Amino acid sequence: MTTDDDATADADAVAETRAARDADPAAAPRPGLELPPLTLPITRTLIVSGAIASRDYQDVHHDAEAAGEKGSPDIFMNILTTNGLVGRYLTDHFGARSVLRKVAIRLGAPNYPGDTMVLRGTITDVDGSTVQVRVVGANGLGNHVTGTVTVELAAVAR
């Protein structure tokens, strides 16, 4: 369940990403091209709902007291939610019909409630309709996620 504020923030972030992409529709993907950033508020609702949606019932993703007993200052986001947000970032940019062919990510600094994560991407390779993107998601503690994603563009996506 999301709150109205969460839904509004999500809708605003998607609109901002699409507007930046559409500002220069003639810009073809090319190595070195930086994608517009996507800023995501990290809320308790996002962390808990992402864990539940991915069937990750580890207490550190929904129970602050249990997380504290295990040495964490609060609940924190799981990798499956992060993976989904990386995918959303790229399909928001390249279009819903693009296909993520390979996602190779690594977690770093945890995403805790009350922080903000900014996803950024840089195209590192283009081979026909296939684009490779280096992705970094940073929060107030450092890089939460780093990795490379291979995207097949919508023109040939099935």
Q: Remind me, CATH topology?
A: Thiol Ester Dehydrase, Chain A
How much strand?
25-35%
Low confidence ranges: none
Helix content: 25-40%
| Average pLDDT level | 87
Radius of gyration: 16 Å
Tell me the overall shape. elongated
Given helix and strand content, the structural type is alpha+beta
Order of helices and strands: HEHHHEEEE
Sheet with the most strands? Answer: 5 strands, antiparallel
Number of helical regions: 4
Could you describe the 3D structure shown?
The chain is of the alpha+beta class and 158 residues long. It has a single domain, classed as Hotdog Thioesterase (Thiol Ester Dehydrase, Chain A, Roll). The protein has 4 helices and 5 strands, in the order αβαααββββ. A 5-stranded antiparallel sheet has the order 1-3-4-5-2. The radius of gyration is 16 Å and the shape is elongated. It holds the Pfam family MaoC_dehydratas. Residues 1-35 are annotated as: Disordered. This is MaoC family dehydratase.
Fold topology:
Elements: H1 4-22, E1 34-41, H2 44-53, H3 64-69, H4 79-94, E2 99-107, E3 116-127, E4 130-139, E5 142-152
Antiparallel strand pairs: 1-3, 2-5, 3-4, 4-5
Biased composition (Low complexity): 25-35
Protein name: MaoC family dehydratase
InterPro entries: HotDog_dom_sf, MaoC-like_dom
In short:
The protein is of the alpha+beta class. The chain is built from four helices and five strands.
